[in-house]
């Protein structure tokens, strides 16, 4: 359906009970937060799946991204066939053996051969495969600076942030809200380490989706009438090792993996 013209269109489909299970004071406040992009319609526990799907249909821009994704992935694989994988391994902090370049992705081995064939110790989905290949082809291997910035502070990040917030941060927050202990376990299973004290939250870890490309996730549980929140941060040198489109894809891919794991192992 077209994007709602105002918050009242969203409010009309809510049950108007002001149950506060979404951690907003009223259903109208929740509708306003959804309209402004701060919350997802899926966070209302009273809505049926049909209504959620109707209000969650992808925008034309999102559909365009998905339509071009497979073609872009195929092109990246062709480009890999034209580079020296052993030199790439040295540049990126990976290893080259038996004709394959292997890098650590979330602490797990992720490999590509000269024909562009991928193999991994984790599920290979396009949202992670594309950043991996982009990193192999174009990553500069620059050492992280240790200074954290938000996605919107990265080069060209401001324009893409609303969609990143929806596909990455809001999606991860929904998993963390519904399966908090499981979410904590998942980020540590993927090699998460504790962050500096200045960034501490209820759950706060640094992951390495790629070598020399750290990502920090900070989640605050709801407390004293305040809604929960989740923010992601990247090393300021991140855009030197990975272009912004791949950083977006990586964030969306991580959120998708967390969603699928929670559906498989979580309990309502």
From TrEMBL:
Keywords: 4Fe-4S, Iron, Iron-sulfur, Metal-binding. Transmembrane segments: none annotated. It comes from the Bacteria. GO terms for molecular function: 4 iron, 4 sulfur cluster binding; metal ion binding. This is 4Fe-4S domain-containing protein. The keyword Glycoprotein does not apply. InterPro entries: 4Fe-4S_dom, DUF3786. The keyword Kinase does not apply. It comes from Desulfococcus multivorans DSM 2059. Residues 2-61 form the 4Fe-4S domain. Pfam families: DUF3786, FeS.
């Amino acid at each position: 359906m077209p994007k709602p013209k105002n918050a009242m269109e969203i409010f009309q489909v809510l049950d108007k009970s002001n149950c506060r299970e979404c951690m907003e004071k009223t259903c109208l406040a929740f509708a306003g937060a959804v309209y402004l992009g701060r919350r997802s319609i899926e966070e209302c526990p009273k809505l049926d799946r049909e209504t959620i799907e109707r209000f969650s249909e992808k925008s034309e821009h999102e559909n365009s991204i998905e339509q071009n994704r497979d073609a872009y992935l195929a092109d990246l694989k062709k480009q890999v066939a034209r580079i020296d994988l052993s030199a790439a391994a040295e540049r990126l902090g990976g290893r080259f053996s038996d004709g394959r370049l292997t890098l650590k992705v979330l602490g797990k081995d992720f490999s590509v051969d000269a024909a562009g064939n991928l193999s991994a110790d984790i599920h290979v989905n396009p949202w992670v495969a594309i950043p991996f290949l982009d990193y192999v082809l174009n990553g500069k291997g620059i050492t992280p600076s240790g200074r954290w910035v938000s996605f919107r502070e990265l080069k060209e990040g401001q324009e893409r942030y609303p969609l990143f917030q929806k596909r990455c941060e809001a999606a991860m927050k929904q998993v963390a809200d519904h399966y908090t202990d499981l979410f904590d376990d998942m980020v540590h299973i993927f090699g998460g380490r504790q962050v500096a004290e200045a960034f501490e939250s209820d759950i706060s870890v640094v992951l390495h989706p790629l070598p020399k490309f750290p990502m920090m996730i900070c989640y605050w549980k709801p407390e004293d009438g305040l809604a929960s929140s989740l923010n992601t941060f990247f090393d300021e040198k991140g855009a030197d090792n990975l272009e912004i489109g791949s950083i977006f894809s990586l964030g969306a891919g991580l959120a998708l993996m967390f969603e699928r794991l929670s559906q498989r192992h979580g309990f309502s």
